[in-house]
Structure formats: structure tokens, C-alpha cells
Amino acid sequence: MIFKESLKIFREATPSETANKTDLDLDYDVDDSINYAVQTSPKDKVQATFDEIITKICNKTLDLRNGNSRAVFLADYSHVLDERTRVDRQTFLHIAASRLAHSTAIRFAVRKKGHLLQYKDVNEKTPLHVAIAYGNLAFVDAILKEVNGAEMDILLRQTSENGRNCIHAAIHHFLDHSYALKLIEGASNTTLSARDKNGLTPLHLAVEYHRSSASQLSLVKALIARGDAALDQFTIDPPGLSVYEYHRYTREKAHVGHQEAKAESPLEILAGKIEDQSTLVGGRRALDELPVNQTTARKQQPLEKCDQRQEPKTDMSPEIHLYADSIQQEIKLYYLRSTFESAPERNIRDQLSATRFLYGANIQNVNLSFDFSQGPLTISQESFEDSYRHMVFDEVLRYVSFRPVLLQKPPGPAPGSRLAKKLAQTMKEDQGPNDLVFFFNWLYRRNVRHILKVVVHDTEDVPHTDKAITDCLSKFEIETLSWRKADMSSQTLFNACRGLKEVYLRWSGDPSILKAWTEQDGLLRLEKLERVYLVWNKEKGPEAFHKVTSAVEYLQSRLNQAVEEINAARRTITKNSSLVEPRKPILVRQSEIGVSTSKRLKDTASPANMSVDLRKRRIQPNRWLGCIDRFADELQNVKVPATDTLVLKENIKVAVIDDGVDIHIESLQGKVIGGESFDRTYLDGNGTSPYYISGGGHGTMMADMICRVCPTARLYVCKLEMHPDPDGGGRQISAESAALAVMAAVRQKVDIISMSWTIQQTDDNQSSITALQDAIRAALDAKILLFGAASDKGAVAEIEYPCSFDRRIFRIGASTADGRVYGPSGNPQHLSFIFPGHKISPRSPYLEKGLPIDSEEKSGSSISTALAAGLAALVLHCIRLGVIQAEMETELTGRCSSTAVRLSDMEKARDFYGMRSIFRGIGLNEDNQRFIEVWKRLDGPARRLRSPSGKSVDMTGLEIIAGLARDLVSGIADR
């Protein structure tokens, strides 16, 4: 195939151009001669002529190093060089690429017939493709010397029949490392990020596990430096893998292949499909892979000059594993670092995209950051560990952030005791706060070793001591530090994190501090330091601005001068100055902050104060909630017996898709098992707002209501992106984030999804609504129960998502305490059910541990939706216990009652129609308001669980719940 646009550049030189262009003998290289016999088919005159030329060159009867010989050559053969062979559609350059190792002849042919480089043979290969496949370094070298700039990139970009360009080919065929690097230098970002038919970029190929070596690591670095857009590309086969995931995929495949098929070719095992399935001869491809003439049998000799390629290691040696680890870490660190930068020519890179890049669907729920910037002001060690027990961290975190926090210490010895006196005697005078040491030690225990950015909002009046800062940070590799402590000493920085690349320094205004920072034993001791940000408080006005501007100029000047002195000293010490790696200049900038806390912060709502507020609060009686509370209290005491049935081992999992959940709330501690944030509006410069922080408290209350109904439920939290409503009607939910959240819940295999919100379709969000529809369809196909809130605007007048998409989504409205529909929820005939949603407040807004929850009464269908999701979780949990009880009875007696709850009942209850039948069977109110009167089914079991009497005196709690489960599943109607 010929690309006409490309040929405008690679065209044949005109006679006048040839005459004007200097063609000296000195331009060409001295060749090693390789002679071999050539057999041709008389039927193809072009083929015969090409073979004749190559024979003469190899036999030295044609020496193109001489100007006269070149003139004779053009006179004899110029007319045929533009021709192609009949069968293979190959040009002379194709033949030379596969058979000729004479750089002079190749350079001459390229110089005179450069346009032929764009021509493709029957296999869609250019001459450079062929040369790379044969490892013909003489041909590649000639291309590098004769072609450059845009022409080189156009040449490298051409693809063969499998969609691979020349950079793909260089990596796939293990082209000599130095030549591969030169080709990469000549390629654009577009060429380096191009995908083949399987969706693999050159970087995907380069990171394959079996290729791992020291030289391959440098190749990977070069590919990233020149074409990091490849990091935004994903594979087609295997589907949807980033460069990082593909590396891990080939690593797993290598280990499996090594264990199961040691006798097979490792290249076939690890690389999957080998291009053209060629024969390997002497560790490389046979020369007749691309024959000059397919109809003639020829015996060709190898290109001795070209046999310098690196071949894959076939063993699973420690060496290959070590270099594979280095390649994996290089990819990970580069991508994570790039999330702190913005580039208009590439895709958005942030924490959300980084999670996708490293872990795909992230089924294991690995976290790339830890943000405590909005956590409680005081917290105990026990409460903190309970709240975050579920979190799994990568070894490398993008950032860690802490607010000023007081760690509640365990009770100390009694005042006046011998131990108290001894502790008082050992206290050092300079000992200050060290609360954060516990938190950083906790991160280290959770396998964190490398943190790209650490942000600590310390207090100004009593900041952490230098020793505490060192104890916090020294065990980690930290690249950027912003510890809000004024006049941080250089010695502390060196002791705490000597690998710093960036540091944010708060300056009090003392000139001596600036001078100390610029001394040889100051910031310059940090060998990797590249940037210094001088932080100033913009609230202090123009005077502070001018002062810090002068300080920045002073620091920049002094540090640059010191760096020059260091480099000069290194050159003097080292005899060969070219081997000296100079120290990079340190850039100094200023950074603004807002008003900072000037005093140690304290909780404004203490347990005592809150208890007073609770006593003043008038709680509206609600029979529905009262019944649920009593039953839930007793249900918690019924232990779940061990079972071998996989689907019964885990608690019911509910996805809470909202504005996040504050997991420090006492009622939620230990119940959040994971989550993900899809909120990209977080403007602190670090990343997405974490799922364990609620933007407005809404999601926290929804989670509290779900666990109020079903205290054994486990929550998977998905945080949505929200924007202010331009009409002033509260917050609008991003449909894109909703679609991502629903899909995340599907991948986590939750049982129930609670969506206490509505989204309307607009002209701006049509594509996102389509994605949301696809996600909901996936959830329904996965047999997940979906609960959505009805609009609180009265009658349904327009399409609203999620409920309008499919009738198998429970549309939940709000009711008053007496079971009547709450006005804004509209006609109950348009709703699936109504649940309490008028003047609802948390049952326990504040307990001894954790944060307070908003204790004000709330109204709306969002609360009702959470209660409905909680009731569905409660039903599934009871049925689960019923199935386990039936298993135990069967194991004990050898038979199973005909009325026993079975796994099939569990499956029916997981279906929309099955759960709808159960809800109806619990008992609807008589006036057809679709209000579920739960006391009809739960009051009795609650009493028996609390105080067994009468015929149930010998019944265990498990048997009582199993009886309830039998009643519930009996209401499932056949469809």
C-alpha cells in the first residue's frame, strides 16, 4: 500500500537535484563483504535484476564506495530500481533489507531512491520493517544516517498487516538495544502511542515480563519519556489492560507457563501470538522468512553483521524477576507523578484514572491515598483503627494528608502514684506533641513504603517536635513534603526524608532562617531537591507578599550559586569531567495559603454537650422505626454459624451511592468494607475527595439508616460528583459519576444498591445518561436489587433516573409516621412502596466514640429509600440464617424439613419480583397506600428473641429467625 501524502516527502530525486547534491566517496562507510550464491526464477525479470545487483555487491564486482562505480550503477540499473517483484511486491530496498549487510550500498540506494522506503510488500511491510525483522543493523544504520526529522517519523509510523509500526517491530524482534533507542528518539508521541490490532502500543510490548533486563528497563524509560501517551491506551486482546496491567498479565502468564509447560517455547507462552509464526534458527528468525522469490528454493547464509540482537531469557531467574520489578515500579511511579501535572495534549490523569491504570476494576479495593484532612479533631487509637480497618493500600501512595488532630490517649496512672511520678521525672523539657507518629506508624504497618506527597496541617502555637516529625517520616520514601510548621530546620528535613524532590517551607520572616536554608549544610544536603516553595499567608496582605517575593529571589540566587560551586568542585575532583553528572538547579517559587489555625483546635461538640442537646430534642413517635429498632437490637445477638456454602459465608453487601460516608460515626464503625470516590471536583490539588468523607452529610445519614434497619449489613461506599444547581435548588449529581459508581458496585458483586437521588436528562449529559442506563442494565442482569428515590416534587412529570429506566427498580416514596404518603412524594400508585420519610432523625446521633451525626429531623424520599434498602438487606440476612439453620438440621438429623428455607429461596429473594412479593407479604396498610407495616411480621420474633416464653422456650435465636424466614419466603409469588 502506498501513502500518497507520505510519498510527497519520500519522492525520487530529480536529475537536477541529484546533480546539485554532493555525493562524495567519504559519505559512505567501509563494508564487510559477505558473499553467497543467489538462485533466481527466470520468470521474474525484476527479481533476477535485483539478485544480480546484490550478487555483484557481495562479490565486490560492484563497489559503490567509488563515484565512478555509482555513476555506472545508475546508468545500468536506475530504470529498474522503481520496479517491484511480481509475487511478493517487493522493491529493491525490501530485498536489500533481508539480504544485504553493506551500509554503503544501502545508503546509496536510500539516498537516490528514498521514496521506496514507503512502499509495502504483499505482507504490508516496508523495507525498514523487513530489516528490523532480520536484525539487519547495517540497513537500520543507513536509515538513521539518511533520514531524519518528520521524514523519519513518517517512516516509523507505517504499519504492517498486523497494525504494528516500526517501533512495535523493533521491540517485538529484540532489535539491538542501541539501535532501538535511536529509532525511539526519531519517533513522535503519536507513533510511540499507536496501537496494533490487539490494542498493544510499543510500550505494552516493551514491558512484557519475559523481556525484562537492564537494557529493557532503559528502553521502557525512553519510550515513556518520548511517548507517555501510551500510558492512556488500553488493549483490545486481552481486553482493557493498561500498560501496567499488561505487564502484570504477562508476569502471571509467565509463571503459569513456567510451571505447566516448561518444554514449550517461552516466546509462544508469554507473548501469545508470534508475528508470522516464523522459525527460529540459531536463536533468531530464518533468513527466508521473507523470501526474495517464493517460487524458488534458495539456501541463504546469515547476515553475520546483524546477529547482535538480544534474545528473551527462557528461565524464571531471580535476575529477570528483579528487572521486572524495576520496570513495574518505573511505570507506576511515572504515572502517579504525572497525576500532579496537567498537559493539554493528554487524557485527564488523577487519582481515579490512576486506580484504573494500576488495578482496572479494582476488585480488591486498593487505595492510593489516605486523606484525614476532614477527619475528627480528636479520636482514640481504637476508634481510628476500627474505622479504617477495611482499608487496603498500595505500597506507593499518591498523597497523605492530615489535619491538626488530638489523639486520645488511654487512661494513665492515677495521679500521685509511683508510676505517675516516675513518668513525670522522665519527661523531657522539649517534649511536645507527637500525636501523628501513631498515624504514620499505622500506615507503615499497612505496607505503605513510598509516598509521593505528604501534607500536614500542623498547629502554629504547639507544632510537632522535630523528633516527632522525623519519627513520622523517616521510614518512608517521600518526594514532596508540605508540613505546615514555620521555619522547618534543614537538619530535620534531612533526617526525616532525605530523598525529597519538592518541599513547601513556611517562613516566619526571620532573615537568619533564609541564610541557614542556603548554607552548604542546609537544603543543599537534599541531593534530589528540585523545587522549593516558600509558603505565605495571603490574608496578611501586600506587605507579606512583597516580603516573601524578596525572600524567593534571595533563595533562588543563593541556591543557584551554591549549586554551581558544587558542580565545579565535582568537575575538579573527577579527571574525566564528561562522566560527572551535574547537580540540577533548584527552582524557588512562592505558594499561597488561606487563613490557618492559630491555636490548637478543639471539638466544639463534646459528648456532654451533645447529651444535653439530645435531652432537649423531641423525638416524634414512629411505630415503624420503633419496631425495626427493637428487632434489630435482638437480631445482633444472633450469631451466624459457620457454613461451607460460599454464598452464605459473607454478610449482605449494600452499595451506598451518595456524597460519601463519614466512617467515624459510631453506628458505622466496622461496617464500611470499602469504597471508591468518583468526585473529581476536589480542589486541594491532591486528588478526588475520599469516599470516607461525606460532602454534606447526606450519605452518612443514608448509611446510618441502612445499618439501623439491618445492623449486620456491610457497606460499599461510592462517592458521587456533585455541582451547585444553577437554579439554586441544592446540588446536582454528575450522571457520569453515577454511571461509574453503579458499575463499580456491580464489579464488587453487591447484593443491593441504594440510590437516594434523582437525575434528569439534559442536552449536556445525554452520553452520560446512556452510560448510566448501561450500568443499571448490568446491575439488573447481575441480580442486584436496586432502590431509587422518587422525586420530592410531587407527581411524576418527566423522566428521572435511575427509576424511570426500568420498572425493576424499586421507586421509593416517603410516608408520614402514621403510614400516609408524604405530600411531596406524589401519588402512591406511581411508587413501588412508601417508607417512613417525614421528620426522621438518627436513633443515636452521638455516642462516646466517633463523630456526631446531624441530629436534626429530616424529611424526604431519600431517607425512605435508605430504609427500604435496609429492609431488603434485613430480609436477605434472615433468609440466609434460615438456610444455614436448615443445613445444620440436615447435618444433625440426616433429613431436611419440607418447610425448611432453601438456597433457591435465597435466589428468589434476590430477584426484584421475589423481594416485591416478600415486601407485600410482610403486610401492606389497608388503604392501599403501599406502606409496609413491618410490625405484623417482626414484633413477635422480636419478643421471642428478647424473652422466650411458652412454646418457644426451647427455641434458639437461630431457630426463631429461621421461622421468620419461612414466613417471609412463603410470600414469594410464582411468576
TrEMBL record:
Gene3D superfamilies: Ankyrin repeat-containing domain (1.25.40.20), Peptidase S8/S53 domain (3.40.50.200). Residues 650-876 form the Peptidase S8/S53 domain. GO terms for biological process: proteolysis. The active site is at 658 (charge relay system), 698 (charge relay system), 862 (charge relay system). GO terms for molecular function: serine-type endopeptidase activity. ANK repeats lie at residues 198-227. InterPro entries: Ankyrin_rpt, Ankyrin_rpt-contain_sf, Peptidase_S8/S53_dom, Peptidase_S8/S53_dom_sf, Peptidase_S8_Asp-AS, Peptidase_S8_subtilisin-rel. Belongs to the peptidase S8 family. PANTHER family: NO MECHANORECEPTOR POTENTIAL C, ISOFORM D-RELATED, NO MECHANORECEPTOR POTENTIAL C, ISOFORM H. This is Peptidase S8/S53 domain-containing protein.
